[in-house]
Design goal:
Tetracycline Repressor, domain 2; 0% strand
Length: 193
C-alpha cells in the first residue's frame, strides 16, 4: 500500500495550469512546475504522469472551467442580445488589462495543435462545445426577434466562437480597448435582424 499523498491535488493542478498559461507548454520547464507547485519531480510525476500528461490534465480542467463560465454568462440576462453584448464587453475588459495572459486554448492551438493530434482533437471538441453554447443563445435570440430569423444558429455559433478566439489573439498584442470594442461592435452587427 502506497503512502497517502500529503498535498492537495487540486491546488497542485491549479498551480500547474497557471504556469502553463503564463509560459505555454514548451517554455515551461519541469523546474518551473516544481517551483510553482512546491512538489519534487517524483511526486509531481507520480501524481500526474509526465509533463505532457500534466499539461493535458490542466488543459482539460481549463476547458471545463471556461465552458462552465461561458454557460453561466450566457444563460441569464435581460435578453439574449443584451446577454451577448455584456459577455463580449467583459471579454474586452479582461483582455485589455495588463495582467491578461490570454486563453490557454488559443495559445495551445497556435503552439501545439498543428503537430499534436491528441491536443488538436481535444481543442476541436472544446471548440464545438463553445460553438454549441453560442448557437443555443442565437436560437433564443431568434425566437425573441433580436437576431435575424434567416441566420443558421449553428453557423452563427461558429462565427461567435471565432469572434471570441480572434479577440483573444488580438489581445496578445495589446491593441487597446477601443480597438477590441470596435471589433465586437462590428462583429455583433452580423446578427442583426
Amino acid at each position: 500500500m502506497g503512502r497517502p499523498r500529503e498535498f492537495d491535488e487540486d491546488e497542485v493542478l491549479t498551480a500547474a495550469l497557471e504556469t502553463f498559461l503564463e509560459h505555454g507548454f514548451e517554455a515551461t520547464s519541469v523546474e518551473d512546475l516544481t517551483r510553482r507547485t512546491g512538489l519534487q519531480k517524483g511526486s509531481l510525476y507520480g501524481a500526474f504522469g509526465d509533463k505532457r500528461q500534466l499539461f493535458l490534465t490542466a488543459l482539460a480542467r481549463y476547458q471545463d472551467r471556461s465552458l462552465g463560465e461561458l454557460r453561466a454568462a450566457l444563460e441569464d440576462g435581460p435578453s439574449p442580445r443584451a446577454t451577448l453584448e455584456a459577455f463580449f464587453a467583459g471579454v474586452v475588459k479582461r483582455s485589455s488589462e495588463r495582467s491578461a495572459r490570454g486563453c490557454l486554448c488559443v495559445n495551445t492551438t497556435v503552439e501545439l495543435a498543428p503537430h499534436d493530434e491528441e491536443v488538436a482533437r481535444s481543442l476541436a471538441r472544446h471548440r464545438e462545445r463553445v460553438e454549441g453554447v453560442f448557437a443555443e443563445l442565437v436560437a433564443r435570440g431568434q425566437a425573441a426577434g433580436e437576431f435575424g430569423p434567416e441566420l443558421e444558429a449553428r453557423a452563427s455559433g461558429r462565427y461567435l466562437g471565432t469572434l471570441l478566439t480572434g479577440l483573444a489573439v488580438q489581445a496578445r498584442s495589446s491593441p487597446g480597448r477601443p480597438r477590441l470594442e470596435d471589433i465586437v461592435r462590428i462583429g455583433l452587427r452580423a446578427l442583426d435582424p
